[in-house]
User: Which sequence fits this backbone?
């Protein structure tokens, strides 16, 4: 039972990170109907910048800020510079361009910094705290959960309560009508990409101390799991991303704890297949039902 | 193209390629065998993406399925006392069946999904390959399955080297796979695939079952990818998860897009590029006076960078890929020649309209 509680706790902590990264995928999918297969590679560029800034200044917080800013900048450059080439006629060209971007970014990072894993230290103690003899979350886990949930709440406020959020949603759902009403749809699309890329960078930066270390492929698995989360939750649903993230995080944690870490990717694959076969639009997608 | 012409073309191409092996040194023959192995996979992928409009990032996993099917069947038959050609054929068929069944399952899931969902599902499948290899005892984890050494068969031993023999076998399998795909593409099934790709609703109204066509496309593509895995296992004499990574999957897609989606010639060009580009980049960097630290860093990554840039530039500038560019250039040249030629006395074809077959075969963007 102690073990179960511990696994549940770490699962929820990892799940919030998956949820944050998945939210980035959902934001981009909603605004441009593209699954951003380059999200992992783009995020890891931001993490490299953040780690470099932390190394130079000695401050983790400046590094975290730099990660978010650099991630947003990458999003801006990609949306403005690369996606113009995605053909509207073919839904696959966006995916193919993103894959080209993944290969380019990862090989550039490999050439610049090498393929070795550089350990990144957590800013807090990452040993679990004992509560009544039961190991629970570590202070770093708590920090991760608070930051991730806080950012998701802030994004929700932005989308639901502000004029910018209203314009973002309008541009995503009815681009033509919004344009007639004076919304700058292209700019909203760029804003969406910047927000999503910054959030993904932050998620990757928070995840790196818990993994092997920083290397050009460090966010690959995060992307794969976040994609699963986004599908489980429904690519259209930000709330689904949160619930899906927690579900996948807990499932992964339980599988790792009871069956072994090697089986985790198989478990994620099985979860993805089952969800796709039973409810292809995701467990928590409501928009699909209305559209029908 | 009629079926007989396709068959003759396939046979002729095979004979020509086998003749080519006599001109190459053993290392080049080894590279040629690798090209043939990748060609099986890229040809299958180009038919899947270009004709049926389904994107797979998981063809490395299908190749792995074929490779393991080949290696395990071959081992079982060896211990049962079967050898030579029957063992090779049975193992190859087993590879095709294993990959085909996996492809059927993927296709069944994929027929209900739109592009990005299927791409993500297949990506997750590739990511899970090492985990599956580690958790199923017979696949022996990271170490993989080693094949027993198999030399050149008796009568040929005095004539050709091992690499040349391997190239022959690889080319023969690739010729079968590509000819089969060409027959599918030109036949009724290929027409249905294109109809479903372009407009699913219209295809369904015309009496085509879109889901069935999509699943069939996935199975056909998986079988040839499995053959590619079998050939790769035969040539390298082993199969392990390290050879079938996400990178390979992405590179197969790069090869297909660079060659031109839907074009078998493009798939062949792409397969050649997959083998030759890393070698070419390696040769160039070896000639440059670079410090060893830099060489170590760019060793595996610089070819990838070139592949990635090539992919982006081609998608942006020439969506038809290399094959599309070739076809367009040929059409332009022909049109120019007709314009400058003196007016023929018999009824001339309209100089501005390209020949119907030419336009029908121009690969379109998936």
Assistant:
């Amino acid at each position: 039972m102690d073990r179960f509680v511990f696994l549940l706790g770490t699962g929820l902590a990892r799940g919030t990170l998956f949820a944050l990264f998945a939210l980035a995928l959902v934001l981009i999918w909603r605004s441009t109907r593209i699954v951003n297969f380059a999200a992992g590679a783009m995020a890891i560029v931001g993490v490299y910048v953040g780690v470099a800034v932390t190394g130079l200044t000695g401050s983790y917080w400046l590094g975290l800020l730099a990660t978010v800013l650099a991630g947003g900048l990458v999003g801006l450059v990609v949306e403005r510079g690369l996606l113009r080439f995605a053909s509207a006629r073919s839904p696959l060209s966006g995916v193919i361009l993103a894959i080209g971007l993944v290969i380019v970014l990862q090989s550039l990072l490999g050439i610049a910094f090498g393929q070795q894993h550089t350990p990144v230290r957590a800013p807090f103690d990452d040993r679990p705290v004992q509560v009544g003899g039961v190991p629970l979350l570590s202070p770093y886990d708590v920090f991760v959960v608070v930051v991730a949930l806080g950012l998701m709440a802030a994004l929700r406020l932005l989308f639901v309560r502000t004029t910018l959020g209203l314009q973002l949603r309008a541009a995503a759902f009815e681009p033509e009508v919004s344009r007639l009403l004076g919304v700058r749809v292209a700019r909203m699309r760029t804003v969406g990409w910047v927000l999503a890329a910054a959030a993904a960078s932050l998620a990757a930066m928070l995840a790196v101390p818990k993994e092997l270390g920083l290397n050009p492929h460090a966010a690959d698995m995060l992307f794969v799991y976040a994609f699963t989360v986004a599908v489980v939750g429904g690519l259209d649903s930000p709330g689904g991303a949160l619930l899906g993230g927690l579900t996948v995080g807990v499932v992964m944690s339980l599988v790792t704890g009871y069956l072994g870490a090697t089986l985790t990717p198989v478990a994620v694959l099985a979860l993805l297949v089952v969800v796709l076969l039973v409810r292809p639009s995701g467990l928590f997608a409501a928009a699909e039902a209305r559209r029908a | 193209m009629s079926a007989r012409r396709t068959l003759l073309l396939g046979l002729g191409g095979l004979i020509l390629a086998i003749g080519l092996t006599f001109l190459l040194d053993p290392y080049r023959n080894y590279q040629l065998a690798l090209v043939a192995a990748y060609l099986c996979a890229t040809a299958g992928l180009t038919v899947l993406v270009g004709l049926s409009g389904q994107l797979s990032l998981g063809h490395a996993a299908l190749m792995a399925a074929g490779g393991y099917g080949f290696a395990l069947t071959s081992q079982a038959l060896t211990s049962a006392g079967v050898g030579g050609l029957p063992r090779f054929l049975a193992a190859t068929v087993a590879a095709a069946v294993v990959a085909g069944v996996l492809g059927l399952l993927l296709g069944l899931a994929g027929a209900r999904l739109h592009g990005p969902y299927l791409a993500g599902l297949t990506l997750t499948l590739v990511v899970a390959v090492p985990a599956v290899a580690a958790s199923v005892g017979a696949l022996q984890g990271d170490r993989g399955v080693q094949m027993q050494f198999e030399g050149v068969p008796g009568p040929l031993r005095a004539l050709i080297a091992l690499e040349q023999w391997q190239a022959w076998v690889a080319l023969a399998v690739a010729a079968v796979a590509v000819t089969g795909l060409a027959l599918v593409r030109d036949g009724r099934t290929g027409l249905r695939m294109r109809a479903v790709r372009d407009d699913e609703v219209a295809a369904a109204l015309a009496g085509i079952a879109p889901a069935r066509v999509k699943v069939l496309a996935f199975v056909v593509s998986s079988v040839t990818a499995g053959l590619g895995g079998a050939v790769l296992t035969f040539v390298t004499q082993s199969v392990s998860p390290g050879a079938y990574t996400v990178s390979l999957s992405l590179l197969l897609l790069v090869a297909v897009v660079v060659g031109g989606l839907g074009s078998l010639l493009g798939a062949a060009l792409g397969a050649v590029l997959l083998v030759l580009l890393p070698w070419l980049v390696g040769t160039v960097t070896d000639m440059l006076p670079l410090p060893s630290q830099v060489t170590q860093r760019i060793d595996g990554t610089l070819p990838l960078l070139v592949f990635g840039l090539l992919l982006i530039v081609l998608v942006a500038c020439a969506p038809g890929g290399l094959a599309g560019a070739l076809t367009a250039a040929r059409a332009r040249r022909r049109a120019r020649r007709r314009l400058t030629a003196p007016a023929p006395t018999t009824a001339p074809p309209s100089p501005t309209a390209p020949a119907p077959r030419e336009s029908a075969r121009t690969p379109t963007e998936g």
